[in-house]
Structures are given as structure tokens and as C-alpha cells.
Amino acid sequence: MTPHLQHLHPYPFEKLAKLKGDSVPPIDKHHIALSIGEPAHPTPPFIQEALVAHLQGLANYPTTKGIPELRITIAEWLSERFQIPAGAINPDSQVLPVNGTREALFSFAQCVIDPTDKPVVVMPNPFYQIYEGAALLAGAEAYFVNTTEANGYLPDFASVPADIWQRCQLLYICSPGNPSGAVMSEASQAHLLDLAEQYDFVIAADECYSELYDDEDQPPVGLLQTAYNQGNTAFKRCVVFHSLSKRSNAPGLRSGFVAGDAELLQGYFQYRTYHGCAMPLPTQHASIRAWQDEHHVIENRRLYREKFAAFISILEEACDIKQPPASFYIWLKTPINDCEFAKQLFAHENVTVLPGSYLSREFNGDNPGINHVRIALVAPLDECIKAAHRIKNFLNTLKR
Predict the structure, then answer these.
(1) Are the C-beta atoms of residues 204 and 223 closer than 8 Å to each other?
(2) pTM listed for this prediction
(3) Is the peptide bond before 126 cis (omega within 30 degrees of 0)?
(4) 94-122 residue pLDDT tens
(5) d(CA 59, CA 56)
């Protein structure tokens, strides 16, 4: 077995199950799960129909690169969504379909990290656990950049010393952020591009929440968009990761893509031919339909906006709660230890939320996830409303 396995931490939901293990929730209250970021809105019927209509494709091996129609559709979507001129993204060399962002975010690190040179992978803290696992299993050191309320829950990259940037081979960024929903500005991304040029590292931008934003007139900026605006029209050192899971309520489709630097993607394509992770043809055709339609995405945002409004209106008198600019999470500060809060909330109200410390590490004397919980507003509206009332009731009991 690889010795790197011993460095992995238990996955957050494994820890959560253990935390709840000896608690007995009230039997008169049905369980409401707000801990996992699994979209529960219906998958649009036309996506399902396209999947079924192309089931004959199961008789053929799919190619790693995917069919041209899918890559062209993705390139066109990127150009339209991020205001990049048509034709600036080459579907043959700068787009690869992947089976969801999770597997791609992990395997990309295995491909690009040179473990012989004391590599560092820089990432936000708290973070999506795949970043850390990917870094450790690639033989790299994980370096965390704390995101705190004081800096708007955005990574303080100015705190990273020069010697870390010199050893950095890969930087993970997540905007909109998981768990905070905070959005990086174009200026912040431009600064990172300058650092990548100066210190020669790759930026992997996890943008899987980019289509879940509050203000229809201000969609989050993307890394390729920033690069192009800065004159980096070849997207050097940039790779973005997108998924249909959150955008189109299709987590079971396992469909996404990576796009960016053609040289990096050529190497990653070669890696993936050996990795054996080609997207099935029916999935590719269903994905084409999904990327071609924006109406269901607009409706998706409306549904989340409705849930945020209802949830926050109930809780704002009981706690300090704010709607993030994007994502479907609320990153809630807790009046007691986050693990104790989650455990007691489950025991008293049969509502499950995720302790923030399960998503972060202590670094430089601070653990920015402590005394926070992540609440995923993925349940139906009526369930979110019931959960808000139960959380409010629990918060009020803590004040007595």
C-alpha cells in the first residue's frame, strides 16, 4: 500500500456519523438532512430524455476525449457565460469531459505534481476535502490559507510566504467558495495569475458553484475570464473545473469538464487514457442538452433564492445570519463548539448539519472552521422552513 494513505484524515461524513452515533433524536420529529451538498431539485426531464434516447451508445466504448459535439458545446457555453470571444477556446485542445469535478480535481493533482522536488499544494482552509487528499496522495505537502470572517471568508493569499510560493506546484481555489459561498474578485484572481507566472505553478479553479448566485446581474467571474482579460489568451497555467451536479441538479449523471491551458490538458489527456475514466456516450448526449439550456438554471437559482429568504427570515432574530453571494450553503457561526452544536441539534431537533471543523485544519495557530456549521439548503422549501424553526428553537434554548 502507498505510505501516503496513512496521512489521510477521516472523511467529514464519516466523522459526522460517529458524532451522532449515540444520540437518539425525538421520534415525533422527522429527520431533516442539511449536511450534504446533494441537490434535491428535480433533474430537468429533457436531460433524462436525452440520456434514454442514446442508450444504444452503451454498446460502444467511449473515447477519453469525448465526442466533438460535447466539447464544442462546452466551449460555446464557456465563451457565452464568461464573456470570452467566440473561438477563443479551442474545443479540440482546451476542453476535456470528466466524470464530475470530484474525480477530476483529484486525478489532476496526480498528473501534474512532481513528487521529487518537495512540492507544495496551496489551498483554502476550510476546503473541499478532495484538495487535501489529492495533494497528500500525490506526495505533496498541503499548505492551508485560512479564510476567516475578518477577510470576508476569502483566502488571505498575502499571508503566504515567498518560500512556499517557490515550492508551490499547484494552487486550488474555489469560487464561489465551499462552505462560505464567498466569491473571489477579478482583481484577486489576476493577482494569483501574476504569482503563478512569477513562481511557475498551476491554478486549479473549482467553479462547480459558479451558476448558483443571488444577483442575476452579477454572475461570479471565472478564472479563464480573468486570464483572457489580463491578456493571457492561451490560459497558461489555468485549468477550470465545472460540473452539471449543482448547475443542473444532476449529481448522479457524474458529468463535468476541465478547460484551459492546452499544454496542461494534453498531458492530462494522456494521463486519463491510462486512468480509464471516459464518459459514457449516453451521458455525453445528456450533457450536451444540459449545457445548451439556461432556462432550468435560472429557475434553479430562483428556487434557492426563495429558500434563502425564508430560512434567513426565520433565523435572523435568533442569530447572526447572512445570505452568501453564491452557492446553496449558509456558513453559520455557533454560540458553542461546532461539534457540540451539531450533536445537540440532532439530539433535540432531528436536524443534521455539518461541523465546520470537519472541513478545516488547524493552521498557524488557528482553525477557521471551529464554531461554524455548514448548512446546505438542498431540501425542499417546506423542509428548509421546518428546519429553520427547529434551529431557532434550539438556539433559543441555548440562551436560557
Answers:
(1) no
(2) 0.96
(3) yes
(4) 999 999 999 999 999 999 999 998 999 99
(5) 6
Angle between helices 101-112 and 129-137 (to 10 degrees): 30
Instruction: Tell me the C-alpha distance between 218 and 152, whole Å.
Output: 18
Question: What structural domains does the chain harbor?
Answer: 3-42+296-399 (3.90.1150.10), 56-293 (3.40.640.10)
- With beta carbons less than 8 A apart as the criterion, state whether 173 and 220 touch: no
**In angstroms, rounded to a whole number, what is the distance separating the alpha carbons of residues 39 and 378?**
5
Amino acid (one-letter) located at 48:
Q
Interatomic CA distance for residues 333 and 341, integer angstroms = 10
Cα distance between residue 84 and residue 364, in whole Å: 39
Phi/psi at 29 (5° precision): -125, 120
Q: Which residues of 61-96 are buried (b: 16+ CB within 10 A; e: fewer)?
A: ebebbbbeebbebbbbbbbebbebeeeebebeebbb
Residue 9 above 90 pLDDT? no
Measuring CA to CA, how many Å separate 39 from each of 3, 209, 252, 329, 378? 35, 11, 10, 11, 5
Dihedrals phi, psi of 324, to nearest 5 degrees? -75, 160
What are residue 98's DSSP bridge partners?
256
Phi then psi for 32, rounded to 5 degrees?
Answer: -120, 115
Q: Each residue of 287-329: pLDDT tens digit?
A: 999 999 999 999 999 999 999 999 999 999 999 999 999 999 9
What are the tens digits of pLDDT across the range 189-218? 999 999 999 999 999 999 999 999 999 999
Residue 10 in this model has a pLDDT that exceeds 90: no
